Amino acid sequence: xxxxxxxxxxxxxxxxxxxxxxxxxxxxxxxxxxxxxxxxxxxxxxxxxxxxxxxxxxxxxxxxxxxxxxxxxxxxxxxxxxxxxxxxxxxxxxxxxxxxxxxxxxxxxxxxxxxxxxxxxxx
Length: 123
Hints:
Elements: H1 2-15, E1 29-37, E2 40-48, E3 52-57, E4 60-70, E5 73-78, H2 84-87, E6 90-97, E7 101-108, E8 115-121
């Protein structure tokens, strides 16, 4: 009986754990995102204010509009897309946060396939 009570208590405590999710700290600032492309690790730096995000990648800058759905979700859309793929909006959702990083998932609006990433706030 004692073992059952102990196991029940552990499951109860584990079930109550909520990862940190203070998204408001990440609405503005300068961030870095690393991605593995083939065998290379490529870094994108982006600067975000409440409604605009500027991405810097391989010496080029791209500007996107941001529309916040709530504190943890927003839609990104390039202001000057170069092709049809870039015309599509991206849904971003912050899943967890820490002091200087957040884990997010993203997908093209209207599509179900999602990917995850981690962004680090540098300023």
